[in-house]
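Batch manifest, entry 17 of 40.
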Amino acid sequence: MDRISTEKGRLDDKGSRRMSVLLSRYLDREFHLAQNVVNFKRKSLLATEWLSNDDNSNMHQFHTGSRSEGVSMLNSDIDIMYIDRLVTVLYPDQPITQNNQHKTILHIRGVDNCRPGFVALELCRGGKKCRRTLLYSLVEVGGKVFVSSDMFRERNRMQLKVGKVLSRSNGPSNTLDILSGIDTVVCFPCDNWPREADDWISRTRLHGWPSENLISKIRQKGCHLVPIGDKCYENTGLQWRLTFVTAERRLVHSLSHIQFQVYILLKYFLKQIQGTLKDTIGDADILCSYFMKTLIFFAVENSRHLFWQERNLFYCFWFCFNILIEWVLVGYCPNYFIPTNNMFQRKVHGQHQQKLLEILNKYHRMKWMCLSVGKYFPPIANSLFNAKTQAELQFSNVTQEIDFNMDIAVRSSCRKGTIDTRNPLKTMAKALHLMSKSQTQCDEVRSYCCAMEMLSQIAGNRVNQGNAEPVTGNKSRYTNIRKCKRWMIPWASLGTNMLYLATFYFLLGDFRKSLQMCEEVAKLASCFKNNVIHRSQEEKARYVQKYSGHGHTLLSRCKKEFIDILMFSKEEPWLCLPQLHSELSNCTHHIHIPPLPYALFLSFLCRHELGDTRRRDAALADLIVVKYDREQGGHRNRMLITFLEICYQTIGDTRRAARAYQDSQDALAAGNFP
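Output type: structure tokens
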């Protein structure tokens, strides 16, 4: 084993190359960065967008952030950009094409007192349809009408809520904290490449990245405008920022495996030092992940492709680290697309700049051991220089490791709610089309699960329609219900999804069948974890031993291991317990419930309806214990406290019901949302 000084962290060239190879394998194993796993995640996300974005829809979604890049960092937000297709943005001298004749047209206007990349949007003409958030954000200035970014962002924030608590502003986005954060931003499309970034198209590139073909594709997609002004200046209410998220996603997807690993290492290092930045400078976000993305883009563009090899992984990271220190030293971080925009201008100057430079230089002197700092993730260097870990990385069965990580990726892609659709029949047809074209078992299972989710949704809608129609006889009604139950079974056969079918049986009055399903799924539901990425080696070994060589297909493994948050839609209250309709009516779109508390709550209700007070009270006792569960407890999700309130009301314990209600309100105020 290579020995390393914790003071200097130095290795000779041979030792560093050897450890770089182990570091690459470690990242593949612990951060799920194996190329085929990353490719599947990216492909799955693109499929999700295609299924969600109907051609007739006026609002398309576009995923950004870590998940869109093919990696799920611990506690990373879900970042979604909603593109308003009723609007298009043009320069004043550009013609309005036939496709845009019916849309609202906004003209880009230059603004003073801001960095390059910020513009104003003047209303040229209204379209046949226009959203209220845009109409109520129009302001008149000097005889012209502009769109206020502040008003637009605030009105969108007011529409996004959980219960009685609204989302919070986070730059141009609005953040909704539901277990993991959801960042959403509504933006306007500009189909033409912005003139402010023309130099990016034509600048000299000595090493061929990005390729001319990729540059051409990026240029054709234009950019978007998001509602945020330049915070380096005052009076920014009319300013909008040009954003290049579509270009950035294409560029990240074009990185080689080693380049992508370096990018993740940079983001890992940033997360690990944010505590120090907070304590020393008072601002954990003085450096942000977007700077790391900018850093890797510049580093790859200005270096030879042969440099980026597995044996050079740490040197590649070190190359980027040195660039970052140089940027901090001069106080200038150029925007990748508009280099005249200094992204350090707002925060990295004066004493903050000097303190940040001292912090980075301290970690720079640590060499390899800079990967041992911080507590957000388990320190990489501490594990990497452990003899046992090195032996595992050198002699591990790579196929088994990838199989485990790929299974997690597939199960994550099958989670309910990833597809946003108002036409489940059309979406199911599209999913079946994907399944017919799939070339791998992973793609086939993901497409199958999506199609079965849509079939289950169709079944629920059919039941509701049957209840609303005039009664044509009990036989016809029961025939319809039996058919719908059969349609629900494939989706319900996926692990804890059985609780949806158990809910359906409860609503039909078949409490024994509902109870049976709750008991069947309770053990699996108890294994739910908010963090599905970082698993112990013992857990992985048990999984491999359980399924390897026993003839289990990927779909059969998913059925046995799939665990997910339950989601009930405000638009489908007939598929939700009536006891939760009050919560449902106060949410924006869905309520989210961990599986174990829900299974126990539904068991309690079934026992109560069956008159089994002894086992009913036992279910309540179990629910009280789960309130303090580290993964599914009330500190993470307010719905569990709401369950207790309903249970106490059901058994007539008004004192405890009142206490639970107060606890629920306190949790709501503290931000523990359902």
